[in-house]
């Protein structure tokens, strides 16, 4: 399938958090093409931890239920993804992008994703990938996300 939207932790947390300033636009984005959203497996523990810490156990369990029900496609990282994540972390050492963001970028690059869904512009707007995915919702026309 073409047109993957690879989700970063920040985008998924905004989807889960109705109090987030970004919730409505991320929900609108997800509702347009939920079948295109893909979450790298390396992101799941971070989402679970942060959801439990900031949104509560109920929200974290609801997300886990959504994963089990197939609301999101989970993409398992390959050895090449891990190597690419390490390479990106070294290349952008001043940003300290780390493993999870590196894997998100590597998976997006490997799958020739249309976009990375993220609110982490500090990292993802600075990373140059061979496939140049868009950054959603930043790169979308505002009227597209109107509810």
List the helices and strands and how they pair.
Elements: E1 5-7, H1 9-16, H2 23-32, E2 37-40, H3 44-54, H4 57-69, E3 73-75, H5 79-91, H6 98-110, E4 115-117, H7 121-124, E5 134-136
Parallel strand pairs: 1-2, 1-4, 2-3, 4-5
TL;DR?
Helix content is 49%, strand content 11%.
Describe the fold and architecture.
- The chain is an alpha/beta fold and 147 residues long.
- The chain has one domain: Rossmann fold (3-Layer(aba) Sandwich), CATH 3.40.50.1010.
- Helix content is 49%, strand content 11%.
- The chain is built from seven helices and five strands.
- It has a five-stranded parallel β-sheet with strand order 3-2-1-4-5, with helices on both faces.
- Strand 4 (115-117), helix 7 and strand 5 (134-136) form a beta-alpha-beta unit.
- It is globular and about 40 Å long.
- The mean pLDDT is 93.
Which features does this protein show?
147 residues; 5-stranded parallel beta sheet; alpha/beta; Rossmann fold; single chain
Q: Which class do the helix and strand fractions yield?
A: alpha/beta
> How many domains would you count in the coordinates?
1
Describe the biggest sheet?
Answer: 5 strands, parallel
Q: Tally the beta strands.
A: 5
**What's the CATH class label?**
Alpha Beta
CATH architecture: 3-Layer(aba) Sandwich
* DSSP strand content: 5-15%
CATH topology: Rossmann fold
Instruction: Say which CATH homologous superfamily is assigned.
Output: 5'-nuclease
What's the average pLDDT? 93
Q: Measure the end-to-end span.
A: 27 Å
Low-confidence stretches: none
Could you spell the SSE succession in H and E letters?
EHHEHHEHHEHE
